[in-house]
């Protein structure tokens, strides 16, 4: 019917709060909800994970079937969350032995795992005669979908469905040796080049080649992919005409200091000073820090692309200087060497450095509410959400000017600036930025103005969702 809303299916390995490892999970937990609220019929389809959300919500089985992955027979079941708790249709694909695990990543047969997820999804919607208006694929875990839709006879019924591919992180591409090709459903072998890049099967490359349009999660990152994409630079340059940059947003119902259930004290723009002070006192008491000092924070993975390897030297440089008076709070995990260094520094500087090695959602919210500044020395940051969360909580971001950080943070030295930026992912540059932040902190009037200003900035999904809707409209006319 012409008046029916467009049906959009999002495919992803993550979706908060079902399973989240990074920003991908946050995006898939928020964007579909905003699209649904705007009038689209929106589903998220993801792997089934044996995690608390699945165990605590009621699901109904909507499909059961079987297929072969190479010579291996597989059973597939699809479950729908009955109450649409997340604000959109949530469907989980379960394949015993491959897509029925506790964690999204980290398995030796990850290629087979996500290949089975994609194959099982297409098998289901083909058998069930589900023909959406758009299939939206997120990152390499779903990158084979457009190729399989357009070049496998088994899925010919989907040949005219447009596809969108979103690059959340182009550093990870899902590379597979060509000996894995036997696991794919039969396809037009004349089209093998669409799967290939540098003599391996590259799912992210296949996504960019085969999708109708692709997006990057910020305009800055779209431009950077041509210069730095872990070997796919030439492909992104060739396909640039069908790319568009749409900066991620944040879910302002989840990230709202006035009603965040994870905070000990709520606050809004009008009482940001007193509200942040109470949250700071609560956090500092838990970690033995001094709430009278400025509090700098790092939240994120200990990974090279995040600049986390710089963190120990940055901390040592600052806390080892007797003339510098501040506290630092770190929440993160990843590189074992960085983890060990942070743990060592926390013992070396008690009362100055608080650290939690791991990840805890509640603690991240409390740090955003308590901190005065958030440090992001990223080498690569496609969009970045942490800086958006921090500003929502009146915390000033200190970021390396790259990708989405450059798109969303304007330096205080510029007209209408509200954050602190630095050019290079070097220890010296980050330390200098922290010293600039300390000067700002001691300018009480300006600091208060900036806190209120960043809390009022609109980084919600409302504007970004409109851009996605426009994109869907353009490819379905």
From TrEMBL:
InterPro entries: Glyco_trans_1, GS/SS, Starch_synth_cat_dom. ADP-alpha-D-glucose binds at residue 20. It catalyses: [(1->4)-alpha-D-glucosyl](n) + ADP-alpha-D-glucose = [(1->4)-alpha-D-glucosyl](n+1) + ADP + H(+). It is an enzyme of class 2 (transferase). Pathway: Glycan biosynthesis; glycogen biosynthesis. Residues 7-235 form the Starch synthase catalytic domain. The keyword Transferase applies. It comes from the Bacteria. The keyword Glycosyltransferase applies. Keywords: Glycogen biosynthesis, Glycosyltransferase, Transferase. Gene3D superfamilies: Glycogen Phosphorylase B. Residues 285-447 form the Glycosyl transferase family domain. Pfam families: Glyco_transf_5 (PF08323), Glycos_transf_1 (PF00534). Its EC number is 2.4.1.21. PANTHER family: ALPHA AMYLASE DOMAIN-CONTAINING PROTEIN, GRANULE-BOUND STARCH SYNTHASE 1, CHLOROPLASTIC/AMYLOPLASTIC. Belongs to the glycosyltransferase 1 family. Bacterial/plant glycogen synthase subfamily. Synthesizes alpha-1,4-glucan chains using ADP-glucose. This is Glycogen synthase. It comes from Parapedobacter defluvii.
